């Protein structure tokens, strides 16, 4: 009887642990498609086709980002193998090259639009009519500001003016998106250039927005929804090996989210992570791929610091550890410099 009871407890703990692990989503971020002139922001079409085929063949749950956010906000569990596909800037190749494939596979997606280039009919961007066509298919559209300024550039104006400028940019884009796209608009922001500080993040949240960053990582119920991590996917990062590694990534087991400001005040900055358990194999790196130094403050607190100065305008620390199941646990912290 005692053995049965212990077995029941063991099975229950395993199921609970598995459920917690599954309550996560991997978000991919794209810009351009099949535009070889822009290899740093464009993905090759054969790379994108491989990704969609893999997601379909292996039964991943590709959901609209707004649906994932709603599930987490409601305290519910996400389906296993949840993924979202997002695109920044509303470039024309989203419509001409990505959309036919996404439609073929029946996958929803989220496009973040900076409204002024669309209103001014810049040739590199989609039209409102093209976006309405995609909305009819099931695409949703988020806020990427009116003019795509770095919100960090507003810090030099002082706190009050910074807040006014950000609100003006977001309100202006929201007005145009709602007018042109109606219910396909969602109150989710993608920070222009992926740049923000704690003050900017908190102000955007106070305006009622969820917001997306541009650093890698896994979205979980623990994530601050004003800085949702997304894995950038361009030619360099979209190799089959790179895609599969990111797709199978798990969140690094943090006991709490770091409290450091994303604004670099001392270079190199240091970051302290509070882990749920000690990880002997943790490794940390800067954006260039160079290894950063780590120092254990106690069994579960580790301090990370680059071995050389970070380079403006932005950088990040990424910490990973290979789990026993062969999947990488991942956490990235974004750094930005004052403009």
Automatic annotation (TrEMBL):
One Gene Ontology CC term in the entry: extracellular region
CDD domains: CE4_DAC_u4_5s
Keyword Transmembrane helix: no
Protein's UniProt name: Polysaccharide deacetylase family protein
Domain NodB homology: 81-339
Keyword annotations: Signal
PANTHER family per record: POLY-BETA-1,6-N-ACETYL-D-GLUCOSAMINE N-DEACETYLASE (PTHR34216:SF3), PTHR34216
Keyword Signal: yes
InterPro entries in the cross-refs: Glyco_hydro/deAcase_b/a-brl, NODB_dom, Polysacch_Deacetylase
Gene3D superfamilies according to UniProt: Glycoside hydrolase/deacetylase
GO molecular function, one term: hydrolase activity, acting on carbon-nitrogen (but not peptide) bonds
GO biological process, one term: carbohydrate metabolic process
Pfam families: Polysacc_deac_1 (PF01522)
Subcellular location: Secreted
Organism field: hydrothermal vent metagenome
């Amino acid at each position: 009887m005692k053995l049965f009871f212990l077995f029941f407890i063991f099975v229950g703990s395993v199921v609970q642990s598995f459920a917690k692990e599954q309550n996560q989503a991997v978000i991919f971020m794209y810009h351009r498609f099949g535009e070889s002139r822009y290899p740093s922001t464009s993905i090759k079409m054969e790379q994108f086709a491989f990704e969609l085929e893999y997601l379909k063949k292996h039964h991943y749950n590709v959901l609209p980002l707004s649906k994932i956010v709603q599930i987490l906000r409601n305290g519910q569990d996400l389906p296993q193998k949840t993924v979202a596909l997002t695109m920044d800037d509303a470039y024309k190749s989203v419509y001409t090259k990505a959309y036919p494939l996404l439609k073929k596979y029946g996958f929803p997606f989220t496009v973040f639009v900076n409204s002024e280039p669309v209103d001014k009919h810049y040739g590199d961007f989609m039209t409102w009519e093209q976006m309405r066509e995609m909305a009819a298919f099931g695409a949703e559209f988020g806020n990427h500001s009116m003019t795509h300024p770095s919100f960090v550039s507003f810090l030099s104006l002082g706190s009050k003016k910074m807040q006014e400028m950000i609100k003006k940019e977001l309100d202006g884009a929201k007005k145009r998106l709602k007018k042109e796209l109606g219910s396909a608009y969602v109150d989710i922001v993608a920070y222009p250039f992926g740049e923000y500080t704690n003050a900017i993040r908190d102000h955007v949240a106070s305006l009622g927005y969820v917001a997306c960053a541009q650093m890698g990582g896994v979205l979980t119920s623990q994530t601050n929804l004003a800085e949702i991590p997304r894995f950038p996917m361009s030619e360099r990062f979209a190799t089959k090996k790179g895609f599969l590694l990111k797709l199978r990534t798990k969140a690094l087991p943090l006991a709490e989210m770091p409290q450091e400001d994303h604004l670099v005040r001392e270079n190199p900055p240091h970051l302290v992570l509070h882990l749920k358990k000690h990880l002997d194999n943790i490794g940390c790196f800067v954006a260039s791929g160079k290894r950063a130094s780590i120092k254990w403050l106690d069994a579960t607190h580790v301090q990370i610091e680059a071995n050389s100065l970070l380079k403006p305008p932005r950088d990040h620390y990424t910490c990973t550890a290979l789990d026993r199941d062969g999947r990488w646990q991942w956490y990235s912290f974004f750094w930005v410099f004052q403009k």
